[in-house]
């Protein structure tokens, strides 16, 4: 057996859950899809209604809603009420981990009204938005102005609050960093009801740097000011097929956006957008995009592809055609490019509805896609949920760029998940050490993709059923995730906590740095009001006793043991 061959596994005996999952498409077509489409439409109408209001009116409503949040927090009795959580139902969250912390007694604060774009400031190039504004909503408002957020996460339903408090990335992150790196100010309601504006250079700068990845455990985010960039009407996208072993595919991916001469800030050498899809252990397609004007796109001989139409082939399958026909170039309307993975949920749609990529389904019912992730979660019971945790992988591995080849080989050997999604992002060298941070001394190593102020990382997106599961073999999903987490810790990688995590508290604080976070927890009164980020991310049910014990032990945090 070669080093890259997966180990032989015994066959797994099917149980009733296998058959339920196999025929779940019936429930999805007749229940989930119609309700999803209705909810999408109602949300769209709500967005239109919001856009009809003046910025002044939206600001007035925002101020009133903030006062309601402050009043609600002050009604809490710490000796009687549980820790503070939002009133959002657990199944509504787009993330894959179970929101089990809400099963314990808690004190709810309703943030459902915070879904407005408060201002698009063309002079300051800033969008000021509330936390429940999603990517589809903000791109629909900004793109017609030839403006965009610097980082627009691909799926329409992803919200500003989730991308800030959790994790957000896009094909432009090799220039601008993660979504939270593009935020210039946060409006936060602290535990005592005080409303503060945190920036990188005011008195709340420590809070500004601590908010990303904190999962909303330092305060309640009620608005954010986010960087805008000028854009053009189209994306000129080049599809380049590559054949070779996984290390060769990794190097081709690196070369697609990182000049070997180290000139990483040269716009002539570095594309505006980058992503790669690895379809198997020997084939991948590298995609690089540059903004293009309407005039350029419509020149004779250029191909325009409106990938947003419901009947179009799913984007990952369209990109895969480059493996047969060779390198090609096309122009995609910018907003449609931003949300290219929405309709098929990357390639997860193939598991949910196995025939949804067929031409007849796309023409007849493609306009109802995608099913809302929240509804998919709401229509699965405990047994189905546990089945997916064991037999299905949705994880992101954030690794230093020079480790991509090693990561691809590890995934192949341990999980055999394909396709894989590769997207680069910068980790900036900041004045303080945040929860995620570049490797010490990276600026002296001069590795490909790095600069003096940022280390290049890559998101290896692992989304699908592992090969052993598809072949009907035994597979321990929880154990595979534990091994993945250990590999990330050993290789200076990170695991976004929207996914199911098997990390113990000690390992959690080996992966992430907790000094600044714990400092802000104590300084701003979050201890005893909001649960800790580890506890919120922890897998499994949380009891009230566990909550209390975790908060009592905050002075002896596990991250101190790991140092």
From TrEMBL:
GO terms under cellular component: cytoplasm; membrane
Gene Ontology MF annotations: Delta24-sterol reductase activity; FAD binding; oxidoreductase activity, acting on the CH-CH group of donors, NAD or NADP as acceptor
Keyword Oxidoreductase attributed: yes
Compartment annotation: Membrane
Keywords carried by this UniProt record: Membrane, Oxidoreductase, Transmembrane, Transmembrane helix
EC number(s) on file: 1.3.1.72
Top-level lineage group: Eukaryota
GO annotation terms (biological process): steroid metabolic process
TM annotation in the entry: 23-46
UniProt membrane topology term: Single-pass membrane protein
Enzyme class, UniProt record, top EC level: oxidoreductase
Ranges of residues in domain FAD-binding PCMH-type: 52-231
Nucleus as UniProt keyword: no
PANTHER family, per the entry: 24-DEHYDROCHOLESTEROL REDUCTASE, DELTA(24)-STEROL REDUCTASE
Protein name: Delta(24)-sterol reductase
Native organism: Populus trichocarpa
Organism classification: Eukaryota, Viridiplantae, Streptophyta, Embryophyta, Tracheophyta
């Amino acid at each position: 057996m070669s080093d890259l061959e997966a180990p032989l596994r015994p066959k797994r005996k099917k149980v009733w859950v296998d058959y339920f999952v196999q025929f779940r498409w019936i429930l999805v077509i007749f229940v989930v899809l119609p309700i999803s489409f209705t909810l999408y439409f109602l949300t769209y109408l709500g967005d239109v209604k919001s856009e009809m209001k003046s910025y002044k009116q939206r600001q007035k409503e925002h101020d009133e809603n903030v006062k309601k949040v402050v009043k609600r927090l002050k009604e809490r009795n710490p000796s009687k009420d549980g820790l503070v959580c939002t009133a959002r139902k657990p199944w509504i969250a787009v993330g894959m981990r179970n929101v089990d912390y809400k099963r314990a007694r808690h004190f709810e604060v309703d943030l459902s009204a915070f879904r407005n774009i408060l201002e698009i400031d063309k002079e300051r190039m800033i969008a000021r938005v509330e936390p429940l504004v999603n990517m589809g909503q903000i791109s629909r408002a900004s793109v017609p102005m030839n403006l965009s957020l610097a980082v627009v996460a691909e799926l329409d339903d992803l919200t500003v609050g989730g991308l800030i408090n959790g994790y957000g990335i896009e094909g432009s992150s090799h220039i601008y960093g993660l979504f939270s790196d593009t935020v210039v100010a946060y409006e936060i309601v602290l535990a005592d009801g005080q409303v503060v504006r945190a920036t990188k250079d005011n008195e709340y700068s420590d809070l500004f740097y601590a908010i990303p990845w904190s999962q909303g455990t330092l305060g309640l985010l009620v608005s954010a000011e986010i960087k805008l960039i000028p854009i053009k009407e189209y994306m000129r996208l080049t599809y380049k097929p590559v054949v070779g072993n996984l290390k060769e595919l990794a190097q081709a991916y690196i070369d697609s956006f990182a000049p070997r001469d180290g000139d990483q800030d040269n716009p002539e050498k570095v594309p505006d957008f980058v992503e790669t899809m690895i379809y198997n252990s020997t084939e991948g397609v590298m995609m690089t995009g540059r903004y293009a004007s309407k005039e350029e796109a419509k020149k004779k001989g250029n191909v325009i592809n409106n990938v947003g139409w419901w009947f179009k082939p799913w984007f990952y399958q369209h990109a895969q055609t480059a493996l047969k026909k060779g390198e090609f170039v096309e122009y995609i309307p910018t907003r449609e490019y931003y949300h290219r993975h929405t309709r098929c949920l990357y390639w997860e749609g193939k598991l949910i509805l196995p025939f949804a990529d067929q031409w007849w389904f796309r023409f007849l019912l493609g306009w109802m896609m995608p099913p809302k992730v929240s509804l998919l979660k709401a229509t699965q019971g405990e047994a189905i949920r546990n089945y997916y945790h064991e037999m299905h992988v949705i994880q992101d591995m954030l690794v230093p760029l020079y480790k991509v080849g090693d990561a691809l080989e590890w995934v192949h050997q341990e999980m055999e998940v394909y396709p894989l999604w590769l997207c680069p992002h910068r980790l900036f060298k900041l004045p303080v050490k945040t929860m995620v941070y570049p490797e010490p001394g990276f600026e002296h190593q001069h590795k490909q993709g790095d600069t003096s102020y940022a280390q290049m990382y890559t998101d290896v997106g692992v989304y699908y059923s592992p090969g052993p599961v598809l072949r009907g073999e035994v597979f321990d999903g929880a154990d595979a995730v534990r091994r993945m987490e250990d590999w990330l810790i050993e290789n200076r990688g990170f695991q976004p906590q929207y996914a199911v995590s098997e990390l113990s508290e000690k390992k959690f604080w080996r992966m992430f740095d907790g000094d600044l976070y714990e400092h802000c927890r104590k300084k701003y009164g979050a201890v005893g009001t909001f649960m800790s980020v580890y506890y919120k991310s922890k897998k499994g049910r949380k009891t009230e006793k566990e909550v209390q014990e975790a908060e009592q032990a905050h002075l002896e945090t596990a991250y101190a043991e790991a140092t």
